[in-house]
Inverse folding.
């Protein structure tokens, strides 16, 4: 493996509510970084991140996981912590070493809730 200078290493922590898609995004990043040659899924219990039996049973992250990908000569350490409040200890430890945070939002859930409170009318269907 290539030796990286300190300024070529970035620690990225994924942030977001439980079910927002952090583990799925981490899997996609590992795939795009050519660490794996096929993307695992939560449903098939085959992601790099959620690899313990308890995580497979609950279909959610319980422990923070770390993986890496190389991008443009940088080593990106990707930290995928659990989103559930019950396991927030893993999130706080990830904060201590994070250079960057990526906020992951489940857009389908946001859209559903937004429509419940204030129906959205696409601009193209509005009358002039
Ligand atoms: N349709 C769709 N489903 C997604 C997407 N990303 C994740 N999911 C599904 O959403 C569910 C939860 O995804 P996870 O990646 O486990 O979410 P998480 O943020 O890691 O959840 P925690 O580990 O509980 O914090 C799974 O069933 C995924 O297959 C997406 O972009 N589109
Ligand atoms: Mg997860």
């Amino acid at each position: 493996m290539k030796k990286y200078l300190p300024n070529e290493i970035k620690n990225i922590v994924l942030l977001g509510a439980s079910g927002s898609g952090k583990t799925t995004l981490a899997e996609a990043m590992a795939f795009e970084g050519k660490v794996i040659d096929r993307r695992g899924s939560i449903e098939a219990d085959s992601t790099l991140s959620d690899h313990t039996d308890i995580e497979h049973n609950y279909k959610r992250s319980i422990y923070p996981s770390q993986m890496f990908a190389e991008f443009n000569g940088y080593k990106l350490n990707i930290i995928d912590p659990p989103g559930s409040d019950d396991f927030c200890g893993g999130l706080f430890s990830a904060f201590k070493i994070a250079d960057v945070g990526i906020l992951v939002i489940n857009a389908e859930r946001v859209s559903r809730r937004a429509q419940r409170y204030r129906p959205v009318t696409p601009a193209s269907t509005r009358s002039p």
User: Anything to note?
Assistant: The chain has a mean pLDDT of 90. Residues 10 and 76 are 5 Å apart (CA to CA). Residues 7-120 form a domain with the Rossmann fold fold (CATH 3.40.50.300).
